[in-house]
Write a structure and sequence with these properties.
With 446 residues, the protein is an alpha/beta fold. Helix content is 38%, strand content 18%. The longest helix is centred in the last third of the chain and has 25 residues. The radius of gyration is 21 Å and the shape is globular. The relative contact order is 0.10.
Length: 446
């Protein structure tokens, strides 16, 4: 069984081809600069050299066609024809209350996604464009939507209801939904394994820190509270999103600048966050380089982000009544030594103490690391996320008619003996260059 996953962003399409029988990814890649000039695909087939092909992609349809043509190419492809693909999985950011788990896509489901697209304006429109393009180009294949919001459907009303007129909820479904669900699901289940506990026995704060940032309070293995809200705009400081602010700012700036509320919200989504503070950088790597050069605005953005993260961790620890672990994941959470240190410093009163040397070593995307000090009462884990693995297992379970909501579904990666073979090979290569890395690899209790 071969499966294709597609993650369509506003200007990119990421993909993976997974051979489920062999339990290995056989190809992965990304089409960059979709809808922008100078588009190109970066493609890696298992056991072959990576390639780059320049090809104009004015819409997502051309991008997905480019992926299709690359996958069946006789020299660098991995299949002979697209009929070898049994299903295509699509990431869909916002499923509202209608979708509590992954689902086969038909015209009714697609219509529901269109009704919800204004709730996630940066993500749902390109998600939908990608689905439509893929269904047109691959009409005989089963298409499945994997919902970003599904994991958070366990939040209690006191976590998701806003203090606004209640009829806004009953009439317009205005509530906290939560996002990055597949990431928070994966790392929370892996954290339970690393802690030697059942999935329903752990209290965690999972920190997904990438361009988008979200934290989840995990109570007894389930999402209990979450930093993002009605849309992915609420919560932490992000690459281009403001996160929490006084809502009166929208009206004030609209009147002062002669803008509509929609235009102000667009600025809060696309030109705020770290980019708004620095007026230059959304990428944390650029910010850290600028800090080394003494850029005061870069320092300010870094301090604001770290403070907001620390505040949420403390609040969620109070909600949960104590923690088994804090988990860092996603590109920045997995790689930024500086940000993790700034967030963790001063949390010793909560029983949280990190080891600076371990933190310095834990920069791999291929292995799960423990950066806790030996005296820490709370584990501090760095777990590389693997959202595509959630995609794959949901897709296979749907095809085999054994799928259920995540509270009643056990994933393969919850097994103590689970090994991601591709990551394991890459980790071993890293250890040859950095032997100290093996010192921080998290150990699974016997």
């Amino acid at each position: 069984m071969k499966l294709l996953t597609l993650n369509c962003g506003s200007s990119s399409v990421k993909y993976i081809v997974y051979d489920y029988d062999k339990k290995v990814a056989i190809a992965n890649g990304v089409v960059e600069r979709v809808t922008i000039s100078n588009s190109f695909i970066k493609h890696t087939a298992y056991g072959k050299d990576s390639i780059r092909i320049d090809s104009d992609c004015p819409t997502h349809r051309e991008a997905i066609k480019l992926i299709r043509d690359t996958l069946i190419h006789p020299d660098y492809g991995v299949i002979t024809e697209m009929s070898e693909i049994d299903a295509v999985g699509h990431r869909v950011v916002h499923g509202g209350e209608k979708f509590t788990k992954s689902v086969k896509i038909d015209q009714e489901v697609l219509g529901a996604f269109k009704d919800l697209q204004d709730l996630a304006p940066l993500h749902n429109p390109p998600n939908i464009q990608g689905i439509e393009a893929a269904m047109e180009l691959l009409p005989s294949v089963t298409h499945i939507a994997v919902m970003d919001t599904a994991f958070h459907q366990t939040m209690p009303p006191k976590s998701y209801i806003y203090a606004v007129p209640y009829e806004w909820y009953t009439k317009y479904k205005i509530r906290r939904y939560g996002f990055h669900g597949t990431s928070h699901l994966y790392v929370s289940r892996r954290a339970a394994v690393l802690l030697g506990k059942g999935a329903d026995e752990v209290n965690l704060v999972t920190c997904h820190i990438g361009n988008g940032v979200s934290l989840t309070a995990i109570k007894n293995g389930q999402s209990y509270d979450h930093s993002m809200g009605f849309t992915p705009l609420e919560g932490l400081v992000m690459g281009t999103r403001s996160g929490d602010l006084d809502p009166a700012i929208v009206e004030y700036v609209a009147e002062a600048e002669g803008l509509s509320a929609k235009q102000v919200v667009s600025i809060l989504n696309k030109k705020s966050g770290l980019l708004g503070i620095t007026e230059k950088y959304a990428d944390r790597r650029d910010i850290e380089i600028a800090m080394e050069k003494g850029d005061e605005r870069a320092y300010l953005s870094f301090d604001i982000e770290a403070q907001r993260l620390k505040k949420y961790i403390g609040a969620y620890a109070a909600e949960l009544g104590g923690l088994d672990a804090i988990v860092f994941t996603a590109g920045v959470g997995e790689k930024s030594v500086l940000l993790r240190a700034a967030v963790l410093e001063g949390l010793e009163f909560m029983g949280v103490k990190y080891d600076p040397q371990k933190n310095e070593l834990a920069t791999t995307r291929y292995a799960e690391c423990d950066i806790s000090h030996s005296s820490s009462k709370v584990k501090i884990l760095v777990i590389p996320t693997d959202e595509e693995r959630v995609f794959i297992e949901d897709m296979v379970a749907i095809l085999e008619n054994r799928y259920d909501i995540h509270t009643r579904f056990t994933y393969r990666f919850q097994n103590k003996g689970f090994i991601n073979t591709l990551r394991e090979e890459l980790y071993k290569k890293e250890c040859m260059e950095n032997p100290g890395l093996s010192q921080v690899r998290a150990k699974i209790p016997e």
